[in-house]
Design brief:
Layout: H1 4-20, H2 23-33, E1 38-44, E2 50-56, H3 60-68, H4 78-85, H5 100-104, H6 107-113, E3 120-129, E4 132-140, H7 149-186, E5 190-194, E6 200-203, H8 205-213, E7 217-220, E8 223-226, H9 229-243, E9 253-258, E10 265-272, E11 286-291, H10 300-305, H11 311-321, H12 326-333, H13 337-351, H14 356-365
Antiparallel strand pairs: 1-2, 1-4, 3-4, 5-6, 5-11, 7-8, 9-10, 10-11
Helix pairs in contact: 1-2, 1-7, 11-12, 11-13, 11-14, 12-13, 13-14
Length: 366
């Protein structure tokens, strides 16, 4: 039987982890209290994408193999499948997944979970929202076998404390988003703070007016989307890139978006928000700041004198900046599409870009 003092110690470690990211130590205490040898805190996002994984005493090579085997696919992983639909804070073991021996013979168990010493689990879903699902597990080896009724009772007592700690960390992370929101609002910027799939955490009044108009961007179920269908794939890709925490940090992306109604342009600057190493990333991870491009006719002298564009190349570049496509520019200038494409390639080369969207974004910076 676990002493009450030990349970209080686990609770203290969990709360501390919310403040300083010491989740491995907290998970070690959780595993020890429940008689297991390993533990995890797992975040699963929309479409079962893995958001984060904090683990104690699990071989990192196992994580690599897990991804290589598409272990985060609910169709292949009964643990994730159960966690995505289970009631909050209901504990589950392999005995709840059906025929235990049949489960242990599945490919994922046979090739990964058993060889890496985690064939048995106690797991529970801590929270569920449109941003994702968070769950925790205590893992047991072949020697330990299925969790006992007493171990499950202890796990059930500690799971709400894990839930409380996760919520506390998310609250602390959210304060940064609110402070940033206030700063952008004071500057009068049209800005959105969202996660990697565009779900908006907060937005400024200028941004509210922008999506209310619906000419370039709109919100559907709190998810930010471009109004023009041709821009949607590029926008989604830019959000995902912005949320990646690679080092060195990536520069912010400049993405022009056009109105389906009149072809008018806005430019979105998309940048990842700074975060600590232990942030869960369920909420704010990307900032989108919107601005209207400057009058392109005023930059014609700069394009000629600084970048060396010819008069024809300037005309093509400014046509694209106005939202015209190559065929429209050719028609307006009385030129062939082949000629306009040639002039476009030359202009892009002189401006140091390789794609049409990059050229338009470059012009918006001048």
């Amino acid at each position: 039987m676990v002493a009450e003092s030990e349970l209080r110690g686990v609770a203290d470690r969990l709360r501390q982890a919310a403040f300083d990211g010491s989740w491995e130590e907290a998970l070690a205490a959780l595993a020890a209290a429940c008689g297991g040898h390993a533990a995890e805190l797992i975040g699963v996002g929309p479409s079962a994408t893995r958001l984060f994984n904090r683990a104690h005493n699990i071989d990192p090579a196992g994580h690599a193999l897990f991804l290589a085997m598409n272990g985060d696919d609910p169709a292949r992983n009964v643990r994730i499948r159960a966690g995505l639909s289970a009631p909050i804070l209901r504990s589950l073991t392999e005995a709840d997944f059906g025929d235990v021996e049949a489960v242990l013979r599945t490919e994922l168990y046979a090739e990964l979970l058993r060889p890496y010493g985690i064939p048995y689990t106690l797991q529970t879903t801590l929270m569920r929202s449109p941003a994702g699902v968070v769950g925790t597990t205590v893992n047991y080896s072949e020697r330990h076998g299925l969790a006992t009724a007493q171990q499950r009772k202890i796990f059930d007592a500690l799971a709400p404390l894990v839930q409380e700690a996760v919520r506390l960390q998310l609250t602390l992370e959210g304060r940064g988003a609110r402070v940033l929101h206030g700063t952008l609002e004071n500057l009068g910027a049209a800005a959105f703070i969202c996660n990697a799939v565009g779900r908006v955490v907060t937005l400024t009044p200028e941004a509210e007016r922008l999506v209310a108009a619906g000419e370039h961007l709109f919100l559907k179920d709190r998810v930010l989307r471009p109004a023009h269908p041709h821009d949607q794939a590029g926008f989604a890709e830019a959000l995902l890139r912005g949320a990646v925490r690679d080092l060195p940090a990536r520069p912010s992306a400049e993405l022009p978006l056009r109105s389906p109604a009149d072809g008018g342009l806005i430019v979105c600057q998309i940048a990842g928000l700074p975060t600590s190493d232990f942030a869960f990333g369920l909420d704010a991870s990307v900032m989108v700041v919107v601005r209207t491009p400057r009058d392109p006719t005023r930059i014609a002298p700069i394009l000629q004198s600084v970048y060396g564009l010819t008069t024809a190349e300037v005309g093509v570049a400014l046509g694209l900046a106005r939202g015209l496509d190559v065929e429209d520019v050719a028609r307006e200038r009385g030129s062939s599409v082949w000629t306009v494409r040639t002039q476009l390639r030359s202009a892009a080369s002189k401006l140091g870009v390789s794609r049409q969207a990059e050229l338009v974004a470059k012009l918006s910076q001048l």
